């Protein structure tokens, strides 16, 4: 199964592809986002596929199992916690992530939800503030898009 997400924001744009062979396989996430300042940026699946009020309409991180925020390799993490992407000096972020928690199949599918790219680095739940275990202190939402099924 395949899905796609077109990211748009103020000066930020990109295309993210998702591929999953079957419901037991990991999801391979690939793509490019342009326009982010150099450095790391939080990259998450959010609960709603709604951008009617910009990226704020996407809601919180997708968290159907009611866990704390964490890193992509942590057992205790939101389903939507995909960690960070990194933008180079040309403001280009090349994405190549494999994740075993998200799925394109079944009731907990991420299809119809959204991807949000944040202003700051996600601290992966290891910070010393209350927001660390909720958002990873990743800051403002710079770009987002709805995850939809695709042919490719």
UniProtKB/TrEMBL annotation:
It holds the Pfam family Sod_Cu. Residues 12-147 form the Superoxide dismutase copper/zinc binding domain. Its EC number is 1.15.1.1. It catalyses: 2 superoxide + 2 H(+) = H2O2 + O2. Coiled coil: none annotated. One of its GO terms (molecular function) is superoxide dismutase activity. PROSITE patterns: SOD_CU_ZN_1, SOD_CU_ZN_2. CDD domains: Cu-Zn_Superoxide_Dismutase. Residues 66-80 have a biased composition (Basic and acidic residues). Residues 66-85 are annotated as: Disordered. It comes from the Eukaryota. Its cofactor is Zn(2+); Cu cation. Binds 1 zinc ion per subunit. Binds 1 copper ion per subunit. SUPFAM superfamilies: Cu,Zn superoxide dismutase-like. InterPro entries: SOD-like_Cu/Zn_dom_sf (IPR036423), SOD_Cu/Zn_/chaperone (IPR024134), SOD_Cu/Zn_BS (IPR018152), SOD_Cu_Zn_dom (IPR001424). It is an enzyme of class 1 (oxidoreductase). PANTHER family: SUPEROXIDE DISMUTASE CU-ZN -RELATED. Destroys radicals which are normally produced within the cells and which are toxic to biological systems. Belongs to the Cu-Zn superoxide dismutase family. This is Superoxide dismutase [Cu-Zn]. The lineage of its organism: Eukaryota, Amoebozoa, Evosea, Eumycetozoa, Dictyostelia.
